[in-house]
């Protein structure tokens, strides 16, 4: 019996892919021929050109034989090339927010709804896809597709906070120029946003209230929106520093009984309930009682919108203990009807302080203002109704949206 050559040994714990473990002073591993005393596995471990890190050399089939053992065709192997189908004008797979020049290749025709959407984005400063869908479209797919076309045409740009967050859309200088030329709108009435604000969550929820209010007013022919002024549009930065209180929004609605002014406070739970009761609402009570008002107007009611019934109960308890909030009404921010400010989905703090769960939800039946008493309704509008009423701009006509 012949002695079988023994494989090279290595110490326990060392990786076989380390150059020091594989290299041997008795032979050259860079040679294409394997030494007689090495195994096939060790022969496939070849070092890099520097000779320090081993690499695995693939085992190739013999010349003229494929991997499946079949002989290749006489004219050579047949290869399939996978490439984008650009002959039919299909867009490449590009990063989020791009379409690879689709608008310049296929052309783009604006319709009146596009101008209304651009004007709304300029008034909102930043609008989410769901807000634009609620205002202008019947389905999320249609909304995303049309927004993508406007973005590709250069009228919108998309800002993304994170992969799990909804995209924000802003007007571009080209979009503003288009509105000025087509609608004769003052450039100062529409805003451009180059970045996402630090308080993005609060900014978005305030615009949620704005969008729900616009949709709710479309169903009430006797009501119309005169103005919706968010916090960032109330005066200038220096003025906001000098005043005692800056509401999240001031809303003016025209009713058959006359115009009413509402102050809106969007509470996301970032401030202690005692601060809201003793600082904000106490200041509202004092400014309204003295006739000073807020930014030159005297709100007839303060709408405090908070997410969830638990937060509402905490706020109601703090307001009752502080003895403030005489003109405040509390509503659930997660309720679409309460966000519209029109439905009887509010209640004074004294009626909610001792209630919990279902009892608290059942008590949210008061209107925000007597002039806004309307029958119950659902959001959004039924399909076809939005098209019949021509969902233009913020509230107005298809030729000139109202400057709210």
Notes on the protein architecture:
With 404 residues, the chain is α+β, with helices and mostly antiparallel strands. It has a domain at 220-376. The chain has helices spanning 19-22, 40-43, 102-106, 112-124, 129-136, 140-152, 173-183, 200-218, 237-242, 273-290, 309-322, 336-339, 357-362, 385-388, and strands at 45-47, 54-56, 127-128, 156-159, 168-171, 224-230, 249-255, 258-266, 301-306, 328-332, 346-347. The strands form 3 sheets. A 6-stranded mixed sheet has the order 6-7-8-9-10-11. Helix 10 links the parallel strand 8 (258-266) and strand 9. Helix 4 crosses helix 7. The longest helix is centred in the middle third of the chain and has 19 residues, at 200-218. The chain is globular and about 60 Å long. Residues 11-46, 76-100 and 376-404 have low confidence and may be disordered.
